[in-house]
Amino acid sequence: MSAATNVTTHVFHPASAPDYVPLPQMRQLQLTRLQAVVRRAWDHVALFRERMTARGLKPEDIRSLDDLRLLPFTVKTDLRDTYPFGLFASPMQEVVRLHASSGTTGKPIVVAYTKEDLEVWTSAIVRCFAACGVTRGDVVQNAYGYGLFTGGLGAHYGAEALGATVIPISGGNTDRQIMVMRDFGVTAICCTPSYFIHLVERAVELGVDVRSLPLRVGIFGAEPWTNSMRRHMEAAAGIRAQDIYGLSEIIGPGVAIECECQDGLHIIEDHFYPEVIDTETGEPVPDGIEGELVLTTLSKRAMPMIRYRTRDITSLVTESCPCGRTLRRMRRIGRRSDDMIIIRGVNVFPSQVEAALLAIEGTVPHYQIILTREKGLDVMEVRVEVTPGMFSDKVGAIEDLNRKIVHVLDQTLGIRVAVRLVEPHGIERSEGKAKRVIDRRNLEQ
Ligand code: DLL
Hints:
The protein is of the alpha/beta class. It has helices at residues 3-12, 23-44, 46-54, 76-81, 115-131, 150-162, 174-183, 193-205, 227-237, 350-358, 388-391, 395-413; strands at residues 95-101, 109-114, 139-142, 165-167, 188-191, 217-221, 240-247, 252-258, 265-267, 272-277, 291-297, 308-314, 316-317, 329-330, 335-336, 341-343, 346-348, 363-374, 377-386, 418-422, 437-439. A nine-stranded mixed sheet has the order 4-3-5-6-7-8-9-14-13, sandwiched between helices. The chain has a four-stranded antiparallel sheet with strand order 10-11-12-15. A four-stranded mixed sheet has the order 20-19-18-21. Residues 1-12 have low confidence and may be disordered.
């Protein structure tokens, strides 16, 4: 996309103005917002106030952006421990939407939005999509899942506000996706990168050449992907493949986006303030050095997040970007510092599998998760050892147990997994940390 088109997009959408503000102005805006959000969290969130008090801090101690590092971190288990609404800073009358995402064990984590929060979210997505060259002339097939997952509704309202035509098709039903893409003249698609690869492969089987369709841009995220996957998707579908990043705890999709330069993701930093820290020491690392991304929401009302440890590993890029945006960039996320795995866009913790299995009689807590990729789609198999008593039982009992585990895991994780029961001691014992996850998906394919 030329710079001229970019300027047009920028003027056309006043919401995109903060993308280009001079740095001193941005830092001032961030500081003002940071002070307000810390005050809000202090006033309304007990956990945050207690942690600040324990450090001898008051909201007025935050005088500069550097003072951010004085503040305590927030982590995923804080959301679990205060489940469901303990971190809300707004009364329920002001909360207009809830979403949820996987927690580390049985319960999900819940996130909340006021009307103003939804406006911020929508404006962030408008800016992200505009950065990818999507305009109101586009027909957007939104194949992120609609529901508790933030992907579907988040992308939906942003694309609509941009003035594009949105097709809220949600995930799944691949043959119908291909029919819609062809018949409705789709020009932009949003989904996980792995699903897009699957979709293109299926299209080939159906005799549809995606390269001959008007589709020209894909906005892919919710799971890690690589530059070689980008090249593959761009060549196979005749599109530009853009990376979008976000997480439920912060807002959902729309935290950071690739511009047409495809060289790092611009962080929407007037709303989401980034730091990168050393995972061990918790100390900030210099720009350009890898570490864990920590985000602070600068304008969220219903659920402010102060120094949220995302567990996503990246580094900050400070050089200016040829696109003209002054927003700092981060390198794409290739891995996490915890054991969360993402299967077809759904977050799964091995501890969730473990908790579910423990509740089922006839199994022992020896299990392994095997991940593979078939036709672009993630496949998860859970191998579980049965008890000796169960093993000597009839075949029917084993089959019943298998069905039961499939059902329970389906309920717990929200995705269908294959289950293979193995004989007692059938899973290799480890002398150190048990190797629970064997990931055979080759991200380079
Ligand atoms: O995945 C929000 C989202 C929806 C982002 C649609 C982009 C597009 P969660 O389900 O809470 O939210 O999962 C958040 O997914 O911490 C990362 O580990 C991973 N993730 C999200 N986007 C990317 C990306 C949504 N572009 C977790 N690259 C995050 C790599 C990503 N990992």
